[in-house]
Amino acid sequence: MFAVAGVSKFEDLVEAIPAHLRLARPLDLPHSQSEMALSRELRHLAEKNRGMSELTSFLGLGWTKHFIPAAVDSIVSRSEFTTAYTPYQAEASQGSLQQIFEYQTMVAEITGMEISNASLYDGATSLVEGMIMATACSKGRKGFAIASNVNPRWREVAQTYAGSNGWTFHDVGWEAGTGARDRAALAKVLAGHAGKLAAVVVQTPNVFGLLEDLSGLADLAHQAGAVLLVAADPLACAIAEPPGSFGADIVVGEMLGLGIPTSLGGPGLGYLTTKKAHLRQMPGRVVGRTVDAEGTRAYCLTAQTREQHIRREKATSNICSNQGLMTVAASVYLALQGPQGLAEVAEQCASRLAYVRDGLQGAKIRPLFSGTPFQEEAFQLPPGSRARVEAACKTARLLPGIWLSDLLPGVPTESLLVCTSETHSRQDLDLLVSILSSAGGAA
Amino acid sequence: MPKDDMGRTMFERGRPGQRGTGALEWDIPRPGLAALFPDKFRRKKAPRLPELSEGEVVRHFVNLSTKNHHIDKGFYPLGSCTMKYNPKVHETLARLPGFTTLHPMQPAETVQGALELMWRLERMLGEISGMQAVSLQPAAGAHGELTALLVVRAWHLSRGEDRKKVLIPDSAHGTNPASAAIAGFDCVTVKSGADGRVDVDDLKSKLSSDVAAFMITNPNTVGLFETRVEEICAACHSVGAQVYMDGANLNALVGIARPGDLGFDVMHFNLHKTFTTPHGGGGPGCGPIGVKSHLAPFLPSPRVTHHDGAYGLDRPSTSIGPVHGAFGNFLMMVRAYAYVLAMGPEGMADIGHTAVLNANYLYGKIKGSLQTKYAGPYMHEFVLDGSPLKKTDLHTSDFAKRLLDYGVYAPTIYFPLIVPEAMMIEPTETESKATLDEFAEIFLEVWRQSREEPDTVRTAPHNLLLRRVDDVKAAKDLVLTHPF
Predict the structure, then answer these.
(1) Structure confidence by residue, pLDDT tens digits, A129-148
(2) How close A240 gets to chain B, by Cα (Å)?
């Protein structure tokens, strides 16, 4: 091989690397392990975790555990999907291309929008991409009227990007009674920053798990010359009127849960849907339908003049690798469920939350807000009860939810954000109600 | 399959009311949607999702899958993409419930194994790269670039400097300038010299106290090691600029040289290239960044900590903040960790050696046809100049389509921009000599056809399910969702 390569020894091939810069020692890494040995080590690490198969968990915040039918992983495991690259050569990549086209169609349908891209990293970064897109849609404006009840983990990521992009966030607080964004506060922000706002940013369900009433919001945003950017839970959209019906311009969010396991939060699947009129500002890849030279239906990557490999510093986003394989998982899941199955999962989630709410009522534990929840809701426990609740939950191997005040200023310290799904049995729900009632109930 | 079934979507199959999942049990009272949601919230028209049985869904996706080229099926010489074999054990291990069922908001004491894995992988990547601190959070290479530039920006700001420019070679991946723009910098292009490497004089003329960083891919995108890397780093450092290494081509260096030792301050890794996590038809990737210690305080939060045998999380106030909602693409980290264990120091050294040998061997086999613009030897890949194809009125794209007819994928084409009609070939270290020989034969045959029967090449592909796909029509008509 060396002779064909035109050299006599390996060192000749790397002569361009100055000798003193080459590594003169073996890397300090664990010695090579057999498949058996490394499997043992990885299993050992996995066993050090207490996953949700061992713990009864009511954690949510956008990473929700749902049941995943076996057919999903059966398809996702196929190396035809896992070991393919980005479908650059359309004639040899029709499988991935058509699958992405179908994914785009389903996400657009679910959110009530016209078009979708081929995926983004996760919910938080989809919000950021939506904001970058909003600045482009508003000719470079950099102000955002952003609801304070947007998932704080997502807002933090947006904050990371804010400094370098020159973004200014104008917080729109929530109503003390309903937990929904404060309409008067929004009107004030819109009036106070006229001509400077790129987008009005809301999330539904919001961080409290409550559906936001989107009616009239698009008009308010448009009157201010801004776009309406909505972060929406795709499962909630199965039964709740989707943002598209209210005139949203950009819809973003997280698809983890729909065929995708929680996996410490990644890989998830960020989505972004929009109006066709905003295609030129849309980030990421997109697949279009066309024909081949003989008129047979075909698919290929298209509208690429937005993308980094062509537009470089003027691209709509820097994204290249996305979450392709996760769109396979979500597509198979959504195809299996169909409109009926998806609506039933959504109804199950909401009904199980209602069951918990009813149960807690007996112990005088009430929701923090009066708004309409989907599958997650904040419950107000008595002052000083947190330590007791935590101790009782530990014994029962239960993760009761997320303490909101750990994430969000301005909420009481004993507000517990509880998320239910179809995966919780009646026994799971009864256990939660019983522990919260005895450890956190009124004395 | 009948030809008229090609491209038929799920939305054109099935029948109303069909579903691929059974009804769920109601072991609790069912209040009904009307009781749960006020009318103003309720969806009036259901999304038009497919209505198929489980068997129909499976058949649909299995049939789709057969229409993909993929690395388990055949050679995939995409330059800069490092399409190496993805070991199967990684897939098994990444599916362990002890990893897949974890929630990112779980208390640290319940995810000790996951945190330990991340902590260890950070250090392994540090050792392999010669960097002193690593963050695994970025979800892809471009995300890593952006994160790294935000870290660099924060470091400059901490020194009271708000530098505005990032220098980027004309041979760079498009993600470099795109990331720099989103990180708030103005991009300045540095020319390549006659040898295909950075024109150091041009670089020096563009360096100033307003330059935050120079981003450089090493080996670069024409497969050449930047021999004057020490001089480049010294020149940048002399004006206070940081030197960023785009690690897209790290595969060539593994076990041979370490970016940290070469003088780089910061870099990103592509776990989906060098560390063989599968590409998944476009992702998910994983794009960790490595930095020298002066940049470490600014890495994304949370950071994994290890004190007294316990792993935890820390959110340093100096951090740029999080760049992902959770920890990044964790299951990709599991796969990469398994890969490093399998390789060990011995296997790691072989990666770079074999990747470099394979690339130079393959070029030696085919250089009687098309040639490179810049002289080798090359590292892990080489870039052919396709302009001689014009003699018979062909383009690199025609040549690429004809290669597909022989059951191999096409090289990366029309990149980098500094080589006309570019064809970028990266065989990787996991391909055998026999595979390289077969590909060389195919390549030379297509070269022969290009001169003797150019119409065969111009109208390729001929042997696939589809003939040439009309991408101009796609861009003109813009049918981006199924027209119901």
Answers:
(1) 999 999 999 999 999 999 99
(2) 5
Distances (CA, A) of A26 to A23, B239, B262: 8, 34, 17
Contacts of B107 in chain A (CB under 8 A): 399
Residues of chain B with pLDDT under 70: 1-4
CB A65 within 8 A of CB A57: yes
Tell me the C-alpha distance between B201 and B213, whole Å.
17
Would you state the pLDDT for residue A320? 94
All residues of chain A having their beta carbon less than 8 Å from the beta carbon of residue B62 are 75, 78
Quick: pLDDT tens for A51-69: 767 899 999 999 999 999 9
Contact call for B65 and A78, based on CB within 8 A:
yes
Of A242, A245, A313, the CB nearest to B187: A313
ipTM exceeding cut-off 0.95 for this assembly: yes
**B299's tokens:** 């890495």
| Alpha-carbon distance B451 to nearest alpha carbon in chain A (angstroms) | 23
- Residues of B in Cβ contact (< 8 Å) with A132: 182
Whole-Å CA distances, A82 to A268, B62, B78, B256: 15, 13, 16, 30
> What is the spatial distance between Cα B393 and Cα B100, in angstroms, rounded to a whole number?
53
- pLDDT at position A21 over 80: yes
Which domains occur in chain B, in start order? 24-67 (no CATH), 91-342 (3.40.640.10), 350-475 (3.90.1150.10)
User: What is the three-class DSSP state of B339?
Assistant: helix
Radius of gyration of chain A from its Cα atoms, rounded to whole angstroms: 25
